[in-house]
Amino acid sequence: MKNIFILASCFLMLTGTAFAETQYVSDTLEITMRSGKGTNFGITRMLRSGTPVEVLATDKKSGYTQVRTKSGKEGWVLSRFLMNGRAARERLATAEKNLAELELENRKLTTSMATLTEEKSGLETNLQELEGQSRGVNQELSEIKRTASSALAIDSENKDLKGRMVSLERQLQTVQQENEALKDRTARDWFMVGAAVILLGIIVGLIIPKIRFRKKSSWDTF
Which domains does the chain have, with CATH numbers? Predict the structure, then answer.
């Protein structure tokens, strides 16, 4: 009776004209598994929509198929209630689960993307700072190079000046030595001149009295 009622309800819903809002019948359904091929056999189990069963035999004339459940229970069900694929409800549940997983993965990826974007922004900021520091270091290096070049030039000039100073000191020592020698020579010359003058004076002193004596003698003869 239950099967007849279900089939009648489905038939009325398919053939009847509905003037109210359109609705859809849920695919949640239970079918009867009987001990034989017909409604006159007793119901051994109720099978929910989506229950997997193993097909043992099919009777096209009666429209029944012999099946075995996972628990090992065997019986006959109407062949038209069997389908090769899973029930739409299960497929929908799987699809919803997959969609939820994809949405979760999408949120994770979005979060990761936001994190990566933030990290990228931070890295770009750090890169700009490093570039600024690099420019500063390059400027300092250029200054150091210029300073080093100036220092080398100054050092070279200092070496040249030191060399010239040493040369001048040597020349000065030579001049001083020559001056000392000249002083000694001048002193000797003056000594010799003085000695000559004294000697000349002595000679003159000896000669002049004789000259006077001779003149006086010559005067006496007249």
Answer: 2-85 (2.30.30.40)
Measured distance CA(81)–CA(151) in Å, rounded: 101
CA distances 164 to 94, 150, 176, 177, 187, Å, are 100, 20, 18, 19, 33
Q: In tens digits, what is the pLDDT along the chain, a chain of 222 residues?
A: 445 444 445 544 444 444 445 444 345 578 899 999 999 999 999 988 888 899 999 999 999 999 999 999 999 999 988 888 666 666 666 777 888 888 888 889 999 888 898 889 889 888 888 888 888 888 888 888 887 777 777 778 878 888 888 888 888 888 888 878 777 777 777 777 777 778 777 777 777 776 665 655 554 555
**What are the backbone angles phi and psi of residue 127, rounded to the nearest 5°?**
-65, -45
Q: Round to whole Å and give the CA distance between 64 and 76.
A: 6
